[in-house]
Write a structure and sequence with these properties.
By secondary structure, the chain is of the alpha/beta class. Helices cover about 55% and strands about 15% of the residues. The chain contains ten helices and six strands; from the N terminus they run βαβαβαβαβαβααααα.
Length: about 210
């Protein structure tokens, strides 16, 4: 894959470059500030971009703003955003632009190489990758989720991360048929419309959790 990286921390930036090149990806541009991001994305049109949320000059939400701007110009441009801490509002705003080709992970997740690569490939393929910590915080403050069984809550958490049915089944050591039944029950209990689209399903769940 062709990848653009936006990260001001030199050690993390170089670590990302080495990690991604080592598994065969091509780094087409590396930038260290917010204003550089959109020009780099538009010039290189990468398969996926990895962007830090907080970048110079303001160290607030420059990466997030650039991601949203770039996706308005190039709809569906795959972007994986990295954050030092859980920022629920950032995740909600980013996903509000559409769940297709969007990821939001904590920087600590980069150290889990297989998880990070899986998330990156999922986003590049048009899927969704939401950090489990973000999902956990969203779910922990929703009383209506008490209607769900413990297993349904597990399935819901994995759904919100953007995982597909086969992956959920493998993770929980259950059959895909069981996953489908649990999802049907979850959507019914939360009064969410059934959907065959993974992206719409993720958006429905996240919209509910953010309500």
């Amino acid at each position: 894959m062709r990848i653009v990286i936006a990260e001001d921390n030199v050690l993390l930036r170089e670590g990302l470059v080495l990690l991604l090149e080592d598994v065969g990806h091509e780094i087409v541009a590396v930038v260290g500030s917010g204003p550089e991001i959109v020009p780099a994305l538009l010039e290189n049109r990468p398969d996926v971009a990895v962007l830090d949320v907080r970048l110079p000059p303001g160290f607030r939400d420059e990466g997030l703003r650039a991601a949203i701007e770039a996706r308005k110009i190039v709809p569906g441009l795959p972007i994986l955003v990295l954050s030092q801490y859980v920022e629920e509002s950032y995740a909600a705003e980013l996903l509000g632009q559409g769940a297709s080709g969007i990821g939001y992970l904590l920087k600590d997740r980069v150290g889990h190489i297989e998880e990070f690569q899986d998330a990156l490939e999922r986003v590049a393929a048009g899927g969704t990758a939401l950090d489990p910590e973000v999902v956990s915080q969203l779910m922990s403050r929703r009383d209506p989720l008490d209607a769900l069984s413990p297993r349904e809550r597990e399935v819901l958490g994995l759904m919100a991360q953007g995982l597909d049915n086969p992956t959920i089944a493998t993770t929980l050591f259950i059959t895909e048929r069981s996953v489908s039944k649990h999802i049907g029950s979850i959507l019914a209990k939360l009064n969410l419309p059934p959907s065959d689209s993974g992206h719409r399903r993720v958006l429905a769940v996240l919209a509910y959790l953010n309500a």
